[in-house]
Amino acid sequence: MDELTEREIRGSFVNCSQGEAKRLPMPRELAALPWSDLDFLGWTDSGAPDRGYLVTAHREDLVGITLRKPPPGPKSLMRSSICSLCLTAHTSNGVSLFTARKSGAAGRQGNSRGTYICADLACSLYLRKKKRTEASQADESISLDEKVLRLQLNLDSFLVSVLEN
């Protein structure tokens, strides 16, 4: 992913008002992020742990969406979950159901879409083994490039569902 400015990030949001986008917290140390390892920019709000934000290139546009997630439930070492985007397995609360208000009139009517994503929105780093989980990962015979393409296709599918009216 190309490095983004705060202005580009704030201007990309499609499922909130411009005023809301101006008030969104930005990721910490924006310039220090590992941009070359990111397929999308995702972060959670440290002041409101039920909120997340995702920005990515989508059909030649920069698209940002605001996300909500439920509060974490009780931890269970026996439970594991898989992210719908990157297919990384996590133990306990490592995957959350994130919902995004749909854009346009459908969103103003309260319609939303949801999917299960790595709770810290660090899918790109898990794919590249820059971050690890406690859960055992499936052995896959596909290359990193193919895994990245799969993540991008899964993310594109979710974005289409958020953007359609």
Characterization of this structure:
The protein has a three-stranded antiparallel beta sheet. A two-stranded antiparallel sheet has the order 4-5. Strands 6-7 form a two-stranded antiparallel ribbon. It is built from five helices and seven strands; from the N terminus they run ααββββββαβαα. It has one domain (about 5-165). With about 160 residues, the protein is an alpha+beta fold. The longest helix has 20 residues, at about 145-165. The mean pLDDT is about 95.
Blueprint (SSEs and pairs):
Elements: H1 6-11, H2 18-23, E1 41-45, E2 48-58, E3 61-68, E4 80-82, E5 89-91, E6 95-101, H3 104-108, E7 112-118, H4 123-127, H5 144-163
Antiparallel strand pairs: 1-2, 2-3, 4-5, 6-7
Helix and strand content put the structural class at alpha+beta
Neighbour order of strands in the largest sheet:
1-2-3
Care to count the β-strands?
A: 7
Mean pLDDT over the full residue set: 93
Order of helices and strands: HHEEEEEEHEHH
